[in-house]
Amino acid sequence: MNFIPLLLSLVAALLFMQAPLPQELLGLKAPAPIFLGEGPTDPALHPPSTGTLKAVMLFARFPDGEEDLAMQELHQLLVPQAAEFFESASYGKLKLEVTPRFQWYAMKGSSTDPSYDCSKHDTHMGYVQEVVAAADEAVDFSDYELIYVVANKAPGTFNSPTFNAHGGDGLRADGHEIRHAVTFGNDVRGKDWGWQTLVHETGHVLGLPDLYSYDPSQGVYKNIHRHTGSWDPMGFQCHSRHYLAWHKRKLGWLDDEHFEVVTNGSRSVDLSHIESGSGTTALVLPISQTEAYVAEVRHLSEKHQEPGVLIYKVSVAAHSGRGPIQVLPAKADDDEANPEMAKRYIAHYDALYRAGSTFEDEQAGVQIQVRTGESGGFRLEVTRAKDR
Ligand SMILES: [Zn+2]
What topology does CATH give the domain 42-205? Predict the structure, then answer.
């Protein structure tokens, strides 16, 4: 036996154990680690977001439900387009591999039984545990990082929450700890809420926060999605085409080299479209230790829009559902003049800055002038009156 590689790997393991968690992302630093925040993703809490993410899909049948769709139809509704989305949004860096097990596992209680309450960690885990126990003989869970449970249509399974557990707090099967699961409910049968829901929930598994608002005071869609509209699947997911560049950095699909962080002075920055995944993808202007303006080239869809520059504010101190990212629109929505866009994209469909327009925050001493660039990109003339 050669002991040198063994020693080296032991040293590497010790160094890894002692290495502090990364706290900084693109010049911002969270005052404290935030679960599902916009700071760096904690690798101890979430599976890697590059490489192959292996999931098994199981089907749970509640006795008080109905079988509206075949398991194959549900799988079709949820998986193939989501896998394509991850492939393309990650520039080929994340492969979602889902193995379906086409068998209905009968649940012991009715879907409305509080012991399946998915809003509470313990009962949510109990629900997953029951399905895992039923499937254990047929499935080797040590092969999978993530479990998707799809329930039959039933009165108690109206939503699709994500289950994330800290190491040691998950459930066990086949000598393996299961720490990540999504339990899909009736909502995935709605038009545009199938694979898009899988993308949203898997985003949580990978450490991304909710960008829609948890504020229940005015529960209309326009208000719930006032922070980011359709610009990221963690907001209004139905018609989102891409994660924001900030999320792509968090996920490791873009590197620091794809970002131009400007902390002082004046600069010209040439941005390429986010879909290219090459060149400079986003401009970052930190305005405090925890907040930055970010600009990137986007459009909602080929059919609905020409590309332009999207500008938003990121806060690494804000929690999930509390506006950790807020789009700063070039124009306020005029829903009366654009009923189709308002219906499809809900909010901020007129957010893009066009060539010739300017974004300015006088208090922060920041100005971004938008110019036409090369190859469909944009040139940003950035001026910082105050250093950061
Ligand atoms: Zn969510």
Answer: Collagenase (Catalytic Domain) (3.40.390)
